[in-house]
Design a protein that fits this description.
Pemi-like Protein 1, Chain: D; three-stranded antiparallel sheet; single chain; 10% helix; mainly beta; 3 strands
């Protein structure tokens, strides 16, 4: 049986990421947009850069 994870969704429809993940990725709460997709059994988390910034490479997160 596959493991399922549930995340809270705020009033604007945004997924609320756990503080542990934000700390591990060195992100500040509410300061970035991310794209999350599944690939080969892993989650690929990509951040959307602020204006004038370079896009960082995806950060794989294994469940």
């Amino acid at each position: 049986m596959a493991v399922q994870y549930f995340r809270a969704i705020d009033g604007l429809g945004r997924i609320v990421l756990p503080a542990e993940l934000l700390h591990h990725l060195n992100w500040e709460k509410g300061k970035m947009s991310v794209s999350i997709e599944g690939k080969d059994g892993s989650l690929i988390v990509s951040s959307v850069p602020a204006a004038g910034k370079k896009l960082l490479p995806p950060s794989p997160v294994n469940p």
